[in-house]
Amino acid sequence: MRTIAVVNSKGGVGKSTVSVHLGHALALAGKKTLIVDMDMQDNIRIWFNAEEKRTTLFEMMVEGKKAIDATVNVRERLDIIASGGDNLGAVPFLLNLGNLVNDLSRPDAADFKRILSRLSLQWLFDLKAPAPEILKKSLRPLTGIYDYILIDCSPSRTLLHTMAVVASDHVMVPVSMEWLSIVGSAQVGNAISDVREKYNLSTDIAFVVPTFFDKRRSRVCQEVMEDLTKMYGKKVTNPIRINGRLSEAPSWGKTVFDLADRRGMEDFEELARRVIGNE
């Protein structure tokens, strides 16, 4: 099982679009794939118009619910785990509170535990894994069930980002054809270096995916592609071309594969081949 975090600290670069379509492309290539939504907007579930389950990523991480109980099938060989919406934003606070609770002296802990029990938060006393490793621990039982797990991250750099990197084998960075998106990718690289050093990881950026590539803006796109190549070399993948069908797909609950859009299918099939070839 290979886990890939899809990250860029700049919003609007196509992270969810890449996660959804790469996931579907991998599934169509015969790879059992799971998309985990780590964004409070819950876009992945909304995209597929999937059912709302009682168990989401939030319950997995803060209550220890089983990951398999949070999965929802959306296409053949393609499942998703919904984020839990706004609740997900409370995860960093709750996990840090749990660590604080475990550091309390016995008398203080007893008093605090009674208060938390009244609020149905007594599970904070049962946290075993350090906060950054909670997601990795939650996903571990899925080994052998999925070939790929894609973690779709929000732009905000929080503990959730750290958790995604710790849980991943590789990082994929979508970069739109503009300078600020390149800056965002550099910020991701710096953040990964910090996490790698702190937690003794080998995780690094493996794929940089140019998005919103528009041949009508050939000079701008060419300059951005040249800058990306200078920064990341062979990690830069084929570009995802700007595409009306690709933009419209979420409103229909579809992907370019459902819509038989040739341009979109070609771009994401090529990206999937690149990912599979990196095994």
3D architecture notes:
The protein is globular. With 279 residues, it is of the alpha/beta class. The protein has 11 helices and 7 strands. The protein has a single domain (2-277), classed as P-loop containing nucleotide triphosphate hydrolases (Rossmann fold). It starts with a strand and ends with a helix. The model has no long low-confidence stretch (mean pLDDT 86). A 7-stranded mixed beta sheet has the order 3-4-2-5-1-6-7, sandwiched between helices. Residues 4-256 form the CobQ/CobB/MinD/ParA nucleotide binding domain. This is Chromosome partitioning protein ParA. InterPro entries: CobQ/CobB/MinD/ParA_Nub-bd_dom (IPR002586), DNA_Partitioning_ATPase (IPR050678), P-loop_NTPase (IPR027417). It holds the Pfam family CbiA.
